[in-house]
Amino acid sequence: MKTHFTICLLVPLLLTGLVYGQQTAQDPVDPAHAARMAKSQKLFKSTVRHALTAHCLKCHGGEKTEGEFDVTTRKLFLQGGASGETVEPGKAHESYLADMLHHRTEPAMPQNSGKLSDKLIASILDWADLGAAYDSPLIDANQPEDAWTRHRIDPSQKDYWAFQPLRAVKIRSTLHPHPQNPIDHYVAAEIANQGLHVAKKADTQTLVRRIFLDTLGMPPTSDELKTLTALPQDEVVEATIDYVLKSPHYGERWARHWLDVARFAESHGFEHDYDRPFAFHYRDFVIKALNQDLPYSEFVRWQLAGDEIAPQNPLAMMATGFLGAGVFPTQITANEVEPSRYDALDDMSSTTSSAMLALTIGCARCHDHKFDPIPRADYYRFTSTFTTAVRSNQEIILNQAEIDAQQEAFQKEHQPYLDAIETYEKTTLREAFEIWDRANPEKDLPHWYTMKFFDVQSEKGSVIERQADESFKVKPSSAPNQDAFTFEFHTHLPSVKAIRIEAFADSTLPAGGPGLASNGNFQLTQITVGAAPLKTANNLEDVKFSGVRATFNQNDGNLHSRTIIDGNHATGWAVDPQFGKDHAAILTLAEPMEDASGHRLRITASFNGNTKHIMGRFRISVSGNPELPLLSNTISDKVATILRKPATQRTEQDIQSAIKWYRTSDNKWKELNAAAAEHMKKAPSPQGETVMIVSEGVKPIRHHSQGKDFFEDFYFLKRGDVTQKLGKAPQGFLQVLMPQDDSIQPWQQTPPAGATTSYRRTAMANWMVDTKAGAGHLLARVIVNRLWHHHFGQGIVKSTNDFGIQGQPPTHPALLDWLALQLIANDWSLKHIHSLILSSYTYQQSSAFHQEDALADPENRFYWRFSPRRLEGEAIRDSILLATEQLDKTMFGKGTLDESMRRRSIYFTIKHSKLIPMLQVFDVPEPLVSQGQRPTTTVAPQALLLLNNPHLRKCCEDSASDLLQQGLDDTAMIDLCYQRSLSRSPGNHELQKATDFLSAQTESYKQSGVADAKAQATADLIQLILCLNEFCYIY
Amino acid sequence: MNHIYTRRELLKTCGGGMGAVALHALLAQQEARAADSPLAPKQQHIPAKAKSVIWLFMNGGPSQVDTWDYKPELEKHDGQELEGFDKNTGFFTGNVGPIMKSPFKFSQHGESGSWVSDIFPNMANHVDKMAFLHSCYTESNNHSPALFMINTGMKRMGFPSVGSWVTYGLGTENQNLPSFVTMSDPLNRGLPKGYAQNWGAGFLPSVYQGTWLKPQGDPIDNLKLPGQKSLDQQRAMLDALKTLNEDHALTRPEESDLETRINSFELAYRMQQAAPEALDINKETQETHDLYGVGVKQCDHFAKQCLIARRMVERGVRFIQIYSGGTENARSWDGHNSISKNHGQFAGETDRPIAGLLEDLDQRGLLDSTLVVWGGEFGRLSIVQKGGTGRDHNPHAMTYWMAGGGVKGGTHFGATDEIGNEAVENRISVNDLHATMLHLCGLDHLKLTFHLNGRDFRLTDVAGNVVKEIIA
Question: For residue A305, is it within any domain?
Fold first, then answer.
């Protein structure tokens, strides 16, 4: 009976092909229920699945399960959450869920976005009412949790304008009344479309000032103004454009714009905000690159991988500072080590994508980008490019070419010295040796013998080089603070009664040596010697000494030479203050070593004293006579043997060896050598400068960290959490800017042999500038838009740092593409684009206001005039310095935090905790993330600064006293002030006002007993002009 | 601009004794001006009582179990090992000691019967004004990230501080004074770690950053006239400037920002007088000085800062933060070595001034419109730091209290475990704390956003729930 019943029910179920949730075949099924479920499922497929996924899933079953309410499956949905409230089919419209969705109760749902439409709420509740049918769970439980790491974008996502290739759009050339170049045609097309009007051209005087302020960030000097305006009227503007683009101030001005984008700063930020004293080189790179008009593609490539692409070029090395300009904590607890490193890599990749591509990929760290087609997988793969890149301070020779030329010239000067020595050695010296040889048949040879050298080991890894005179030189840069050296020697001397250690003065050592300490001192703390007869295989036996004597002892106690054999490392021989001269100590053996075959010796010299108190150049020798003078000559076994041979039996090689020894005691030879050495001191020495770069396989700048500086591998992380790793992230780029195949192979380069870097950054750099298959077209669009933005006060794409879907679309897409194509076609020359823009009629329009056009286009998005705008903080300050003739034009090098500095503002050091108040008050942003635009605010503290700041006041006072010294009358003086500050003469009315002010103010100061009343009043007048609106606006 | 001036606000802005006509003219003028200013008063999202905030920041991390979170069980377990303790919780991972009872006595106060440590004898009288949040926790065991977290909602550097968000959201009622002011330790003990980032504007326009009153020298830049100039001479200069600027503006009547800028000089001229006046506590009576403890050696410095805070609130300053203590260790509430000595000292420096501030605000009818917040960057462990009688950092538990500004006094919300080491009941994240502060100021933390590089940023990132239980 029961069986029969079941079969009956199954048939219609199978026929309709519907799946009824959790129902079993045993349950009696109401046909109406089946119909409701079918309807419910239809609703689910059409509307509800998407609604739940979009508005509920993230917090309820997706990334978390808020209130223990999970919507991923029907069972969980109907089960309800922690509140105990459930949704019952049939009563869904009266449920707690309904109240929350309708915002009739708290928490109103969805929580972090607006209320859903009534229609959508109705659909959800109807669906639940009908039985809450699911065709499949919202999250596929079978899908592996790392499925997203392999996510492929839909090819249609490349259709978005910013990801499309550049298009050359032909434009009608008849629309503009006075076109000066193609820009005007593109602009005129939109002017016509919008029913606007092309403005009159601005007058020449206005244009010269506009071009200077805009392109150099300062007005023309009165001289520049005079020279330029003296040209025939129709040449002035063109000449001005040429002039400013060649001015070195151009680089200083536009570098500042790029530094905003590069979030450039010179300190680490966070708790200690330690300085990055060598980071300023990046700023210098940007200025130099722009002034040289380095192709923008190269400018970009070097910033990503200059250390790989052009390591021999200091500019390319300096460029890598881009990657390392972000903030980084300096105190990192064990728990924070890995997250901090992921943050640092995030900073590099976010800044790279914002600055170069105007895409915000940082959002994709924790979830797929909400708006742009940048999946999380792309974020991790893109970021993995930087895995092993670290900040490092490196010595770099900044002017190699110059040094090469100098060295060549020097070598020419030096050659005669070497020739003189050579000639002398070949002629006179050889004769002198032969005379001496004949005159001394008994061979009155010195009795200090150097030994045959086998090996030396440094305990701490100092680099030791054996010299021609058989001394040993420790490379100063390799030396640790303490070290010990162990030598292996053989000597054929049968009887050894003393061992000598000589420490030599040397001009290449600190303070001339003989030690490596900064004052030239050393401290030999201990000498131990083991010896055995040469012919035996005996173990070495410790050699005992009966005494030590030395050229000089620093004191009679713990620094006396006798302490080098006392077994105590806390004491040792030192020679302060007798630096810059040779020293020696002789150790007398307690019992002579006697053996006809000679001896094997192992000698250890320890330097365990103060910082770098190590001998810089020293020699060890032995003798059978302990009474010899301390600094008497040495000879080697080999030469002694040669000299003892009858002259006839010597080979030419023997003679050369003998002469080499003999010459060290020849006065003339010594003189010639001293002269050559003296001249050599004038040799140009390549001076390395420390530069903060970013590279791999270099010593990272170390912080107070309870862990590693970086990790070899980079992982996909679940929800950005380092404790939830999902496998290594292989390098990749952004899929929307790659051919369908996601391989990065076309851009990869095999690292050269011996490379210490991964060449991952080179691959990214290649992809970035690739105009065929990579990001090159977007790269070009983004930079021409930045240039446009700074020339006009707004970009063709207004959101200069966001070309994504959240940003604004271009107002003139064809113009944007035309400019980008121009850039690429002209070898990525930025100056070419500047020149095009500055030469256009559009740029040269008057800034006059037109009511009708303003109503139609209040923001002037379509260029019916030139929009007036206020100068930035740096430009205001620089203009004040220039107008008061107080500007120090020194370029490059270390910056300062001193506000009284009178160089351009770009040379202020950017320290996070000490940002320059004078600039901050004028909206200079905190350099924390890439910023493409600055706000312009007008607030009282700016006025206070201009009125009361002591440094600005001092400029005005200094300028006033310069002016007064020139002995000009008031009228001439006022005229000059106007010329310098406003690039024009005052009108009659203004002149009258200024004259009146000057005399009244002078009188007022006189009455209050101020000694230099006129100077103070003049300073007031200068300051007043600098406070004028006209001074700080570009019209 | 929808802001409606109250009579009190108007008098505050203008100074007393002005005729009605003049007032009207000034009001109109101000409205025109303020509309252009990024600091113009803005409409609240939600009706709320608090117009100003005073955040008493106990820098270094005050210990919850030695101040407001009374735990009798702590005494019972004194000297016992804390089982299952993760040694990486604190900063000194090698100095993990046993559970340590509080060296201080606790007693109950007020109608609420709130337990208070005996280091706060004066503040204890005001517990019925305070709402205690016992279950706060943060995300870092390290000063600087924890300071950034509590001040900006993010452990990382570079985000706008709470004060910047509030002034961004609400503007300010007195254009003659800075809208957001911070005061740091004046006894040469340094700044909180991370320095000015703690009151920075991050990516918000820099007008919203806190104005740091420098403890030495001139507290605010550029307020003093340069050289030998008198106010009259400056006035003459400003008059000439105004004439020339207006002549220029006449040629460009449509450019409204020229007018704004002309006005900014007049505003600056007034600020020169208004700011020093606001900072001048000599204008206060001896009785008021005594109330705060001005002149009392131990707490004089903090008393003066609290009194300045009240004067600023009176004058419409929006957000004030006062740091008790300097950089770290013994210079702040960072009691690693000895809780009794360290907390004893800093409680002594702050107890009477804070009590005085609450009393004074209350007497003057300002407490309702002023949100007073007390707390630090993290709490401290219930165990002793080996080698002394202090406690190491603890991100898992801290107590905050709020008073005034629409807060339900005498309430206690949330709880830590039996020994006070970890928040367990009604846990309150820093985002929750911030959402609550914003809410009390009339700002919806979900609506207070700033768009940057393709993203709408919030103080509370992607989280935050208002703790409604403490709101009156």
Answer: yes
My answer on whether A596 and A741 are in the same domain is no
Strand order in the sheet with A526-533: A452-458, A483-491, A599-607, A526-533, A541-542
**CATH code of the domain covering residue A623:** 2.60.120
* Beta-carbon count within 10 A of A484 CB: 19
pLDDT in tens, A477-510: 888 899 999 999 999 888 999 999 999 998 888 8
How far are the Cα atoms of A211, A547, A552, A561, A562 from residue A556, in angstroms, in the given order? 76, 14, 10, 9, 9
Tokens representing residue A325 in the block: 């300009």
Are the C-beta atoms of residues A45 and A135 closer than 8 Å to each other? yes
Distance from CA of A943 to the nearest CA of B (A): 5
Q: Do A729 and A784 fall within a single domain?
A: no
Same domain? For A304 and A452 the reply is no
User: Whose CA is closest to A547, among A531, A527, A530, A532?
Assistant: A527
Under a CB-based contact definition with an 8 Å cutoff, are residues A201 and A178 in contact? yes
Instruction: Give the domain ranges of chain B.
Output: 1-36, 41-216+284-470
Q: What pLDDT shows up at residue A820? A: 97
Average per-residue pLDDT for chain A: 89
- The domain tally of chain A equals 6
Which chain A residue shows the shortest CA-CA distance from B200? A926
CATH, domain range B41-216+284-470: 3.40.720.10
Which 3-state string (H, E, C) describes A280-344? HHHHHHHHHHHHCCCCHHHHHHHHHHHHHHCCCCHHHHHHHHHCCCCCCCCEECHHHHHHHHHHH
pTM above 0.95, yes or no: no
A518 with A466, same domain: the answer is yes
Residue A188 is assigned to a structural domain of this protein = yes
Residues of B in Cβ contact (< 8 Å) with A334 = 88, 93
Full 3-state SS string of A44-102: HHHHHHHHHHHHCCCCECCCCEHHHCCCCCHHHHHHCCCCCCCCCCCCHHHCHHHHHHC
- Which tokens sit at A161? 């304008």
Judge whether A293 lies within some domain.
Answer: yes
Q: Are residues A288 and A379 in the same domain?
A: yes
Q: What is the pLDDT of residues A942-966, one digit of tens each?
A: 899 999 999 999 999 999 999 999 9
Chain B positions touching A854 (Cβ under 8 A) are 254
Respond yes or no on whether the N-terminal peptide bond of residue A179 is cis (omega within 30° of 0): no
Identify the CA nearest to A621 among candidates A539, A706, A535, A504. A504
Number of CB atoms found within 10 A of residue B242's CB = 15
- B32 contact residues in A (CB cutoff 8 A): none
A930 inside 8 A of chain B by CB: yes
Do A763 and A906 reside in the same domain of the chain?
no
For B141, the closest of A335, A801, A1024 (CB atoms) is: A335
Tens of pLDDT, residues A571-608: 999 999 999 899 999 999 999 999 988 999 999 999 99
> Among the three residues A868, A892, A907, which one is the final residue of a domain in this structure?
A868
Residue A970 belongs to some domain of the structure: yes
Same domain assignment for residues A585 and A716: no
Domain coverage including residue A873: 869-926
Chain A residues with CB-CB distance to B93 below 8 A: 334, 706
- Of A96, A127, A143, which residue sits at a domain end? A143
Tokens 């490392």 sit at which residue?
A: A569
Rounded Cα distance between A569 and A548, Å, is 16
The Cα B431–Cα B458 span in angstroms is 10
Same domain, A900 and A959: no
